[in-house]
């Protein structure tokens, strides 16, 4: 009988020297459970184009991305860039839908979640709404954001003691993803994921990006309508495209 070589669940590629993971929806469940079984620090990053460019210019953030268990692209431009440079085509995920998928996987295996961030009322409402939607998930704790620095060690100790499978981090945690990276060695049991407004979305205090806008790659449009100065994001987009052309011409990787 011939030996069969199992294909890895994910493939890590480097786009302009920034890591991105290629993982299909079919393999996501197995990969999440693989990550949970590891004793290493665990962080999932939902990578927008703007965060991608931040990784290009910020060494600390770039190291954060390299150390992450999963780097999930959320921007259509990142998918296009990978294809343009002849790399494997990543799967693009809507941040809200991705988090829902992860929560569904955790519920299937009766895992636990800890909620960290936003204001008290939003936090309580978000927790209740998640528990109603995923009744077999165990909520093992919560802590609001916008807290005084003096109690941070108590928060860390509380998360350590509750040992959740998944820590959902939102607004009000100083540094967001960088907070997770900074304290990663203090947690080995939990997957951490930061998404700025996710708890307020679960609390129905903020609206999520519509599927139609996301599918068209226009997820930045509501931000521009809210703050017209963000129209200048176009210059970052143009710079990204210049970099792609340079890397392709000179075969830089």
Automatic annotation (TrEMBL):
MF term (GO), any: hexosyltransferase activity
Coiled-coil residue windows: none
Superkingdom assignment: Bacteria
Leader sequence segment: none
Keywords in alphabetical order: Glycosyltransferase, Membrane, Transferase, Transmembrane, Transmembrane helix
InterPro entries per UniProt: WecG_TagA_CpsF
Bilayer-spanning residue ranges: 231-250
Name of the protein this chain belongs to: WecB/TagA/CpsF family glycosyltransferase
